[in-house]
Specification:
Largest sheet of chain A: 10 strands, mixed
Order of helices and strands of chain B: HHHHHHHHHHHHHHH
Distance between the termini of chain A: 91 Å
Distance between the termini of chain B: 41 Å
CATH architecture of the largest domain in chain A: 3-Layer(aba) Sandwich
Keywords (chain B): Cell inner membrane, Cell membrane, Membrane, Transmembrane, Transmembrane helix, Transport
Radius of gyration of chain A: 23 Å
Low-confidence stretches of chain A: 8-23
Subcellular location (chain B): Cell inner membrane; Cell membrane
Oligomer: heterodimer
Main location (chain B): membrane
CATH topology of the largest domain in chain B: MetI-like fold
Strand content of chain A: 15-25%
Number of domains of chain B: 2
Number of helices of chain B: 15
Number of domains of chain A: 2
Helix content of chain B: over 70%
CATH class of the largest domain in chain A: Alpha Beta
Number of helices of chain A: 14
Protein name (chain B): ABC transporter permease
Structural class of chain A: alpha/beta
InterPro entries (chain B): MetI-like, MetI-like_sf
Strand content of chain B: under 5%
Radius of gyration of chain B: 29 Å
Order of helices and strands of chain A: HEHEHEHHHEEHHHEHEHEHHEEH
CATH architecture of the largest domain in chain B: Orthogonal Bundle
Mean pLDDT of chain A: 87
CATH superfamily of the largest domain in chain B: MetI-like
CATH class of the largest domain in chain B: Mainly Alpha
Shape of chain A: globular
CATH superfamily of the largest domain in chain A: Periplasmic binding protein-like II
Chain lengths: 368, 391
């Protein structure tokens, strides 16, 4: 009797051991993301399932990804990092990694392998652009146009944005040199693989700005991804660039008369980074969540809610239909072969080196 | 012949003034349609001609006004359906009234008979300017209200809405506000932070104002300037300073940190309003109270406080609105757990232009109007009770 009691105690202690381990994880998780439809897709695809598995955890969202680098700097300087896991674009992740603001990760050790056993580093492949960065999605910056304002001649070429005769009206472009300069040179006759060589010279910059000058007084400059769908819905602009998921949601979910212009779309990556120097209990929670949220099934699930391509190769075959509309998601993915016929390969490294310089020139040109 | 002769005006005069009014309206309609200049010309010609023709027919005013109204109504309907017909009808009604108001010299009737034409002109120009400023201030707030019932997820008047088709309207953005945990959390945070910050501001601000109104306090002006500085220093500078200071002492990202920061912003309003009421406060009352054996605390609550209460309340109201409305400081001092309504609206506007923001704005406008009306009614009541107001 006594013995059995003792053994029961021992057994329960042994059972409790993992539970004790789990309790060392913090129960509050502050996630930083972009808000809007994108954040909603994250909530549906993996935050709600994770909370269902761990009811003790409370997730707090902070929609600050747009100023992730500046806020991480300020928090680190103040010695008071309140974020646990930050969603950032690849170029921001590279900058923060260089400055030591975020943690370097051993991808194979912290991330789940593909279902067939392929290690994470191979599954993500060349999308692991930085040691600090766990990519989630491939998105693109591309154009949408008002189908009722272009007549019988819908644009299928990026240079339509510079063609004020065929497509009169305002255009919405992002208020930054990235992509706009490349598109301008491409439409000024520069070959696609020479764009960055030309842009490296002062004459090339002049050439790009001169091309942009031809449409400058017809451009509405946007800074937030939601602006272009609003401008298109209003009929304020005839065409405009934005993230492809925003256009998908305006077309498929809001039934707006908008068409996609995929030509020369510009691919970019978005993913998670972990702030450097988190306390052990918070870091344990973050790593547990990160492993779950970036596994093959979860990334495929996210594509049910928004038309961004999952970053894992093993997720691609699992992408199915939209969770509510029931339409096939594959044709709306920027990576779909029909859409990716002519893409602009955005050069992170080049922009990391030249961003400050070109930003200054671009802003000066804008103010002229 | 009496001094106050009211004789009909010449067709030329009526035409000129009507044309000016037409040009004024044409400017807005024309700008909305893409060409302000064209609008001015069309409006001026249209109303000018009408003024010239109708000026001599004042005896058939009633019938003519109905005809003008009907013509504009039908023209509006033909041009753009029900909503344009409404605008056309309103405009036709105005045009008819305006022309005969000029032609029969009714505009001169309420004015003193000795005014020169220049003074009469200025009298009405002044009213038009004042009205235009009023419209300019109030329209952006009014436009928000119908848009918040939009059935679509954009800040756009859809064709259905303009046709007054019920399908174009919905309450879904209000539903979203009441069902979405983000918005509810933000509302709850605002409701927890603002009253607490108001309480602190009112307490400290009133005490500071009373203390600073004592003639024997040294460095009164310097202390006053420091206490009022949060109102004058650019908010972003206060916010950045608070961020680094609060981070060092562990207040950044906490509820009390945000409450303290908002209290600091609210105190200047309380000090200013209470100081203003203290100017009219008769100090001999406190001496009289002391003479009758009341301690300073009793004197304050029984004698001084009731008299300066209007200042305290309006200061508290300003402090509340400052906290309820504030986005810059809370972005720095708060963490995501203290996300307030303005913060949520700010991120909402930037990341997802969702009409839920408009629904929230409409609710807030209605609440503010009710709050201000209540305070104003209370104030009038207390003035009436104290016999300070003649009514």
């Amino acid at each position: 009797m006594k013995l059995s009691k003792l053994s029961a105690l021992a057994a329960s202690t042994a059972l409790c051991a993992p539970a004790v381990f789990a309790e060392e994880m913090a129960n509050e998780l502050t996630l930083v993301s972009w808000g809007g439809a994108y954040q909603a897709s994250q909530i549906k695809a993996y935050v709600e399932p994770y909370l269902a598995m761990h009811p003790e955890v409370k997730v707090v969202w902070d929609e600050s990804s747009a100023e992730a680098t500046a806020k991480m700097r300020a928090m680190t300087e103040a010695g008071n990092v309140t974020w646990d896991l930050v969603d950032a674009v690849a170029s921001d992740a590279m900058r923060m990694c260089d400055e030591g603001l975020i943690e370097e990760l051993d991808h194979d050790a912290v991330l789940a392998a593909a279902p067939d056993g392929t290690p994470a580093s191979e599954d993500f492949g060349e999308l692991l652009v930085s040691d600090c960065f766990v990519p989630q999605i491939v998105y693109s910056t591309t154009f949408g146009y008002r189908t009722d304002l272009v007549g019988d001649n819908p644009p299928d070429n990026i240079c339509a944005i510079f063609d004020l005769e065929t497509y009169p009206g305002k255009r919405a472009l992002q208020k930054r040199p990235i992509d706009n300069m490349e598109w301008a040179l491409y439409c000024d006759g520069v070959a696609k693989d020479e764009i960055y060589d030309v842009l490296s010279t002062p004459e090339g910059v002049e050439q790009a700005l001169a091309k942009l000058d031809t449409i400058k007084d017809q451009v509405v400059w946007w800074t937030a991804g939601a602006e272009t769908p609003q401008l298109l819905a209003d009929g304020e602009v005839v065409m405009g660039s934005t993230f492809n998921g925003r256009l998908f949601s305006a077309i498929a979910e809001q039934n707006q008369p908008i068409g996609m212009l995929w030509d020369m779309q510009s691919f970019d990556l978005d993913g998670w980074v972990v702030p450097a120097g988190l306390p052990a209990d918070r870091k344990a929670r973050v790593m547990d969540f990160l492993k779950f949220a970036t596994d093959t099934q979860r990334l495929a699930d996210q594509a049910k809610y928004i038309s961004y391509g999952p970053a894992r190769k093993s997720s691609a075959p699992l992408v199915g239909q939209h969770a509510e509309l029931g339409i096939d998601m594959a044709p709306h993915m920027p990576t779909d072969p029909a859409n990716a016929g002519n893409v602009h390969v955005y050069d992170y490294e080049w922009w990391a080196d030249n961003r400050d310089d070109l930003d200054a020139k671009f802003q000066a040109w804008l103010a002229k | 012949m009496s001094i106050n002769t009211v004789e009909p005006q010449t067709p030329g005069f009526v035409a000129a003034v009507s044309a000016a009014a037409g040009a004024f309206f044409g400017l807005f309609v024309g700008t909305a349609q893409g060409s302000g200049l064209l609008g001015i010309v069309i409006g001026a010609v249209l109303l000018g001609t009408m003024g010239f023709v109708f000026a001599g027919m004042a005896e058939r005013e009633k019938a003519l006004r109905w005809i003008i109204f009907a013509v504009f109504l039908v023209a509006g309907f033909a041009l753009g359906g029900l909503s344009v017909a409404l605008v056309g009808g309103l405009f036709g009604w105005f045009a008819g009234w305006f022309i005969f108001w000029l032609a029969t010299s009714r505009y001169r009737a309420p004015l003193a008979p000795y005014l020169t034409p220049g003074q009469v002109l200025w009298h009405y120009t002044f009213r038009v300017i004042a009205g235009a400023i009023f419209v300019f201030l109030i329209t952006p707030i009014l436009v928000v209200m119908p848009l918040s019932f939009n059935a679509q997820d954009f800040f756009t008047f859809t064709p259905e809405m303009l046709r007054f088709d019920p399908a174009g309207y919905s309450l879904k953005h209000y539903e979203d506000f009441f069902n979405n945990p983000d918005w509810q959390q933000a509302l709850w945070n605002s409701l927890k932070i603002a009253p607490m910050a108001t309480l602190l501001s009112v307490g400290f601000g009133t005490l500071a104002a009373i203390g600073l109104s004592q003639p024997h306090v040294p460095f009164r002006r310097a202390i006053m300037a420091i206490l009022i500085s949060p109102m004058i220093v650019p908010l972003i500078i206060s916010a950045a300073g608070m961020y680094f200071f609060y981070s060092r002492i562990g207040l950044q990202g906490t509820y009390f940190g945000v409450v303290l920061a908002h209290a600091a912003l609210g105190i200047p309003f309380v000090i200013i309003t209470v100081t203003a009421t203290l100017v009219g406060f008769d100090r001999s009352l406190t001496r009289a109270a002391a003479n009758m054996g009341a301690g300073p605390v009793t004197t304050f609550f029984r004698v001084q406080m009731p008299l300066i209460l209007p200042g305290v309340i309006s200061g508290g109201l300003f402090a509340f609105i400052t906290s309820f409305d504030e986005v810059v400081v809370v972005l720095f001092v708060g963490s995501a757990g203290q996300k307030t309504l303005p913060w949520q609206m700010f991120t909402g506007l930037r990341e997802q232009i969702s009409p839920t923001i408009l629904a929230v704005a409409t609710i807030l406008v209605v609440i503010s109007i009710m709050l201000l009306t209540t305070v104003e009614m209370l104030r009038r009541r207390s003035e009436r009770l104290r016999g300070m107001s003649p009514s």
